[in-house]
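Hi L.,

As promised, BON domain protein:
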Amino acid sequence: MNALLELERRKDECRLAARGREQRIQQRVRAELSIHQPSALRSVTCRYQRGMLQLRGEVDCDYLKQLAQEYARRVDGVTHVVNSIHVIDPSETVSTTSF
């Protein structure tokens, strides 16, 4: 019985350590994005799990989408990047100005 309890305790510790690592990596990616392109990439968010990082959000051009991916890839612990960022053409946004 004690062995089972010890095993469960260690599993919980591993889960907590992994969750903390995931949060630290996400913070590092956000820091990288904000250092290099603070305004252009402000809508980009990320989620990290087991070496894979997913980027989400909207940017104005393909260049910024690729740039976000490259900055994220540089962070230690990120082994794979899924780039789900959408490129929004600024000329296609709807104006709310009334005439």
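Residues 2-36 form the longest helix (35 residues).

Thanks again for sending the construct details.

K.
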